[in-house]
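Subject: design request, 189 residues
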C-alpha cells in the first residue's frame, strides 16, 4: 500500500505560535481531509534553519529535513506574515534553501501547486505580501493556486482549537488547502 501524497506547509513566526501558523494549520487540515498527508514547518522549525549560504558544502539536519520534505511533496502551502510590506525573513530564508534542489529531476517547485496565505495587522501588507509570494513561487517554477487567503489579524482572532473568530476566514483557508490538494492530483505524472 502506497502512502498518501504529501502537502508541506511553511509558515509562522519566531517566538511562539502565531496567527500565521494557525492559519496555515487550518489550510493543512483541509488538505488532510482531501486524503493528503501533511507536514508543517512552523516558526520554531524555520528558526532552526541557519541563514542560507549558497556556498556551504554541508547542511544542518534541520536544513536536510526541510529540503527532503519539499522534495517529497506533491503540493506546498506557504503562509507569511506581512512584515513591512512583504514576506518575513524566516520564510524567505526557508525558500532560499530550495536552491539545493536546482539540479534535481524536479528542480525547485517545478509543476507543483502552491497555496498562499498572508496575515498582517491591518490590510495594507496582505496584498503586497501575497504579490511577493506569487512572484517567488513563479521564480521557483511553481503554480500558485488561483485563490490566496489574505487575513487581517487585527480583525480576525485564531483560537487553540483550530478555528477563528470569522467563519469566512476559516472557509478561505480551507479553500487554499482544498485547491492545492485537488491541483496536486491533476499535476501528478
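Subject: RE: design request

Done. Sequence follows.
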Amino acid at each position: 500500500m502506497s502512502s498518501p501524497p504529501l502537502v508541506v506547509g511553511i509558515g509562522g513566526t519566531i517566538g511562539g505560535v502565531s496567527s500565521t501558523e494557525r492559519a496555515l494549520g487550518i489550510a493543512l487540515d483541509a488538505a488532510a481531509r482531501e486524503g493528503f498527508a501533511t507536514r508543517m514547518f512552523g516558526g520554531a522549525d524555520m528558526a532552526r534553519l541557519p541563514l542560507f549560504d549558497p556556498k556551504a558544502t554541508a547542511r544542518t539536519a534541520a536544513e536536510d529535513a526541510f529540503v527532503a520534505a519539499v522534495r517529497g511533496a506533491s503540493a506546498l502551502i506557504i503562509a507569511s506574515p506581512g512584515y513591512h510590506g512583504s514576506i518575513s525573513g524566516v520564510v524567505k530564508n526557508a525558500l532560499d534553501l530550495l536552491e539545493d534542489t536546482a539540479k534535481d529531476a524536479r528542480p525547485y517547485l517545478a509543476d507543483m501547486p502552491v497555496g498562499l496565505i498572508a496575515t498582517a495587522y491591518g490590510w495594507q501588507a496582505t496584498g503586497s505580501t501575497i504579490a511577493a509570494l506569487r512572484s517567488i513561487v513563479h521564480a521557483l517554477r511553481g503554480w500558485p493556486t488561483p485563490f490566496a487567503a489574505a487575513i487581517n489579524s487585527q480583525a480576525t482572532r485564531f483560537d487553540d482549537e483550530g478555528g477563528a473568530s470569522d467563519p469566512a476566514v476559516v472557509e478561505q483557508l480551507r479553500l487554499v488547502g482544498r485547491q492545492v490538494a485537488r491541483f496536486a492530483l491533476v499535476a501528478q505524472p
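The two ends are 19 Å apart (CA to CA).
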